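User: Before I run my own analysis I want an independent prediction to cross-check against. Here's the chain; please return only the structure tokens and, at the end, one sentence I can use as a sanity check.
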Amino acid sequence: MSWTRFFRRRRWDEERARELASYLDIEIDEQIARGVSPERARANAHRKLGNVTRIREEIFEMNTLGLIDAVGKDLRHGLRLLRLNPAFAAVALLSLALGIGANTAIFQLIDAVRLRTLPVPHPETLVEVQVDAHDTGRTGRFIGRRSMITYPVWNLLRERQESFDGLAAWGTTQLDLSTGGESRPAEAIWVSGTFFPLLGVTPAAGRLLGEVDDQYACASPGVVVSHRFAQREFGGASEAIGRTLRLDGHPLDVVGVSAASFYGVEVGRSFDVAVPICAQPLLRPEQNAVDSRYTWWLGLLGRLRPGVTVEQANAELEARAAPIFAETVPPSLTPGDAADYLKFGLRASPAGMGFSGLRTEYSRPLTLLLSIAGLVLLIACANLANLLLARASAREREIAVRLAIGASRGRVLRQLLAESLLLAALGAAAGIWLAGLLSRALVALLASDGTPLVLDLPTDWRMFAFAAGLAILTTLFFGVAPALRATRAEPQAVMRAGGRGLTASRERFTLRRGLVAGQMAVSVVLIVGALLFARSFTQLGAVDPGFEARPVLRVDLDFRPAGVPESRWITYQNEALSRLSAVPGVVSASTADLVPFSGSGWNQTVIVDGVRQDTYVNLNRVSPRYFETLQTPLLAGRDFTDRDTRESPTAAIVNRRFAEQYLGLEAGAAPDAVIGRRFHLDAGPGQPDPAYTIVGVVANTRYNSLREKLGPLAFFAAAQDPDPLPFSTVLLRANGEPDALRGSVTRALADLDPSILITFTAMETQIENTLLRERLMATLSGGFAVLAMLLATVGLYGLLAYTVVRRRNEIGIRVALGATRGRIVRMILGETAVLVGVGVAVGLGLAVFAARAAASLLFGLEPWD
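Assistant: Structure tokens:
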């Protein structure tokens, strides 16, 4: 029998019915033609053919797949039962939809961040080549999010390697699209000419960059834009070809658009523009990284040759490393750092899944959240098991009758499991719909204001397979036990008990009580976890960074479009600062090379009393009133002033931790004693070590995050910068909302020069963006805990109500024997309190154990807090 006939059985039956009717008509007509009366002819024809209904039934059965047909009937019967019990159906489906939806949404995010490979041909052959610094660390300038290799190292390696079909370098940056006023940043990647050919990316329009586009000192290179950028800026891929983009003021022609499925090699980010590496000195002449041995700014991708393993590639890289690093030693390194540099190695590691800071930061939290969501689903399943146990008890007589009239236990068991599977399937379908909403909400929680998160979250086979797997597991969990219990009782005992109204024994409720106690225990685990993450987030938010970020507005200025000569950069910065200080609503203003919590940093070793210290000091250059603007207390000495110029002695202001660690200041002592002390920056061999005189001491402040320990920090006068850049970052303290200053700031700078590029960021937002992971954990764990508590409460109420109903006869007898209402209430609540107490006690023990696994995500408290 074919599948086609099975799914077309009704049509086949109708055709056979017409054939049988036609046969009867022909037979009747033949007998009438032989002189038989019509009534007799009809009777003879039916007698000759036989029972038409039986014939049709036999043909129908021949075209039926027995098991599938039986399951279909069971499912239809289950649908009818759900329609007859809408309250039960609503509770069951909502519980499953929430549990399966939450798990599927988090799995979808984990799949996008941790499991999915790059959408390129043969991603399994891709590797990343990195510098192996042997735990000594690398010294130099670091640019971009994947600063692994310098250009000279990449240049030599691509000429000498033999294990790879090709090597490609890439880096990250931001370029500006505007010609003046508020900036329009574009996410850009530097790419070698081998980048797109190595990955096998195809263009959506035009052509992609090749080696001919990436020649040293290229003067007017073409660029490739992403499909998303082409749609947003030009209205389509084909419309982008031949258009001109102004990137940091330089006109560059668009030669191609990448495929819509290609976002780049960074998970969670999408590039807007791909620019040849050779254009870096053209667009950033003040930070020429191509000719620098000291600048780490490139990532390196390779594709293994057929038959070459990662281990074989690493063996070759180990042999190539020593001569390459010997030829590329930066001349500015100290002897110690140069010796460490010469020991560097090269190693390859699989890179088929791309690169992502998101993966590093959120891998553990997402796995933990998936476990939490799994516990919520476990509670939902326990609730459903209790509901089905109650339904099974209510249907005992129905099942007993079916067994008594000949139905096998296996047949009844299969029907009950089919009903459970139907519930799980409907819950999974609703969960998949809900997962789409939840996954978008999760992406919004992970994204910061300045950095949108770009993740491809399709509703593909992975998502359906995961949801289907959950549906099967939930069916087994909440469906098997009720079905077995329902078919275990003997029909005679059920009929007798039902007729006489026997009271239910306590053993009857053992499984249900165990399920509710388990729900309580798991709920306690989730509630404790939520409180830990919420307290951790709260405590991080209460950490004193050493300055007051609200209401401070960060204003980044780019003077390059104004064409200001290098000799006037500092003068221009001072003029911009002066104008912004006069803007109505500005309380104080200052500049800073590096803004706290921006992710950028500058550190160096210092020499104190002729001794080179073995730890790094975080450094910054700031203008007068910087500490006033951020409200960092000045503990001793003075602030920078207009008298701190290039002609005056170089001045420094250090924090208290610097004075204690390097200058011998006693804890709690007044820092006045260190005023006038001197220290040097270790500038490297062959270069003079600049000396600084300490003119002030400020309170300790944090540099990059609220979690970091307070470390030594030194500030230098911005006006004494020996190598100024055509950029300036101005911090403005407002007497109201900082965003209200934007219009006035834009107008003030337009009066100075309308071509100045401006970017605004609220300092408070910048700090909040460093707490995205903690906010995610606190928000989601709290939501899951509330859901778990609600489900456990419903389960406890259901057990209590069911117990009371089933023990109504027993309670009646107790009342008849003299028990008071209060005694009955105390009896029921006492049993419930024992159940809750057991669940809470077990839950607290499990919570302490589970919290230890998440200890690295906590701040300022212990797992048993």
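Sanity check: The longest strand covers residues 164-176.
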